[in-house]
Amino acid sequence: MEEEKGGLLLQSLIETVNEIALISDYRSTVKKQYCNLARRLKLLTPMFEEIRESREAISEENVTALVSLKDALDSAKELLRFGSEGSKIYLVIEREQIMDKYHEVTAQLEQSLSGISYESLEISDEVKEQVELVIAQFRRAKGRVDTPDVELYDDLLSLYKKSNDATDPAVLRWLSEKLQLVRIVDLTQESLALREMVDANGGDPEGSIERMLMLLMKIKDFVQTENLNTEVPARGNDVSLGGSAQASNVGNQKAPVIPDDFRCPISLELMKDPVIVSTGQTYERSCIEKWLEAGHGTCPKTQQTLTSTALTPNYVLRSLIAQWCEANGVEPPKRPGNSRANTSTSSCSPAERKKIEILLQKLTSGISEDRRSAAGEIRLLAKRSADNRVAIAEAGAIPLLVDLLSTPDSRTQEHAVTALLNLSICEDNKGSIIAARAVPGIVHVLKKGSMEARENAAATLFSLSVVDENKVTIGCFGAIPPLATLLSEGTQRGKKDAATALFNLCIFQGNKGRAVRAGVVPTLMRLLTEPGGGMVDEALAILAILSSHPEGKAAIGAAEAVPVLVEVIGNGSPRNRENAAAVLVHLCSGDQNHLAEAQELGVMGPLVDLAQNGTERGKRKAQHLLERMSRFMEQQKQAQAQTESQPQSQTQQPQPSYSLGNLADT
Question: Compositional bias (Low complexity) at which positions (predicted)?
């Protein structure tokens, strides 16, 4: 029994050393020390193999020493693995802690190896000498302190402590090259390494990892700008940061800074397919899927336990990203085509499929009660799970539900449009709903249905409009005027549903004019000033889109919006201040009357504050307005000085005398 136990212990020691031998590509900051450590440990394998092959029983004293050595090897393996896969930034900033751990592991290994009684082991002299050499090297390593890269440490620490200050591009370039953070794959791996540290430590109470992520984001933004300015070609995993989302900015002097809210917290990239996890945080679908596949059960950002692995598409954020891309001349990111959300196969059981078939038969029944109850049950089933949504669509329910949109029975109509809303959550179903010519029926419900049916019709149009080509279709079928009516007359929920649908539809340039002609602008202005209305965020977001359209700009100007916009810039939330400034930029473009009005209302102080403390986009808009205000005020001073310098004789011109010849000439 003891012999078997000793054999298992030795096999475990051999396997641990073999695992250490497979670890490679150590980070440059620890490469020398960690390579030496790994090389020394690999020299122990012959000793373990000779002991295993020996016929002599291992003494109890040596078993205890070998168990201690196994613990030391496990510690060394974790240390080396972190040196290969861990955060490059952390290894530099926390170098003292890292080296303390290195020396601690080295001392533990030396102590464990020294505790073995080699005379009682049946091993060759060559192996014994080799082990003695390893022990001697460990002893020398204990007292040796290698000179660190002081310049790298100082520059990185300075950036870490002053993450909000401007940084010399030359320093950022040097850091990115020194840390080997110059490709998208390198930067994404670094972000994942930092997130995994938070997960492994059960949180980040001191916020040090979060500051490292902010530092990483600054390096990433610099590399992105550098790649665009030098027109680096994209190849596979070495694609320049931002990928196609930044392609249209090549040649510009400065790439737009991606708002933090639009970046995936894991990859720090502009999100293509944002999804919400059970904690309410949003991530890029492919990144959070990899996180979950790696066995993590927590939210990377909050470290809360995920109650479910379900991923819900964040359509609102996807629309905001599309708006930002349009406003900044950036090509919108393309969503991957093989996402799990696009699955077209359901795992429903045969019994469940049979139930759906029976409900579909009732949808075509000549009895009104049967149609109403079947539509209601399908509505609930479609709400319940993704598998149900796929199975219901596969069974052919969508055309049958579309037919019910024109029924005179209001309750059946409400069930049908809500069932379509629930089915539209599945990406594949969106195309099927459009193909079934559902939009005219949904618009009919939006005009004539009950209030709840109208609200759900608006929500359905919003869901369908996530697909860009559907924005055109929905606008062409006359959806915008009834949405404008719901925005004006609906319940609070109805107004919210109408606003989100209008916002999404108006990302398409052709729908902006339709919205203005439908009378949306006066309604939005009223919602902006309604006490306790709760629609300020939505109203300003839509106005910011419409103001870029000539008809929208004219309508907003006619609505006397400047005083309200100045008030929001001074006292609104960060996002509302940003949108208000964006609207004012368009209004003041080529219109000095609006500039003068804003100046008289005291906009300069709030603009200076926004330029210093606002969101990235808010800062740009505020700076743009400040430059225009400055030019306008300078022109005013010059005109006033010129008027005051003119002599009285020049300012009072004599009246011309006209002859018949003069009149004829005119």
Answer: 635-655
